[in-house]
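As a next step, the fold was encoded as C-alpha cells, giving this record:
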Amino acid sequence: MRLIVQRVKSSSVTIDSNEKRSISQGLTILLGICDADTIEDINWLVRKVSNLRIFDDENAVMNKSIIDIKGEFLIISQFTLFASTKKGNRPSYLRSAKPDVSKPLYEKFVEILKIESKLEIKTGEFGADMLVDIQNNGPVTIFIDSHNKE
C-alpha cells in the first residue's frame, strides 16, 4: 500500500458532481493498493499515520500527531499511486489491484483507522469520479509505502 499524506487546514471531495464531504484541520490521505497488500500492511500504515508527528506544538515544532490535536481524516482511493512510467508516455496501472481486491482493503483500512484513532473520518467513494480540494498546510506532504519499511 502506498499513501500520500497531506497535512491540511481543510479538504473536501465532491463526488460525481454533487455530494460533498469535507474536513477541517487534519490529514488528507490518498491511498493506493496493489495485489500484494494484506491486513498486515493496513495495520502497519494505520499505526504509522495515526502517530505521525507532523502537527505543530506550542513552540511551532512538528511534534504532535493527528490524535493529539483531535483532527479529522479524509481518505481517498487512488489507484494511480502504483502507476509505472518506465516505458513510453502513457502510465501503466498493472501493479494497481483490481476493484475486487482493492475495494475490500480500502474499506478495511478506513474501518481500522476509525477504531484505532477514534477520530472523525470522511471518505471519497471508491471508483467514483471525484474532485478533491486540498488546502495543504505547510505544505506538508509525506509518501509512505508499506513495502518499504526501512
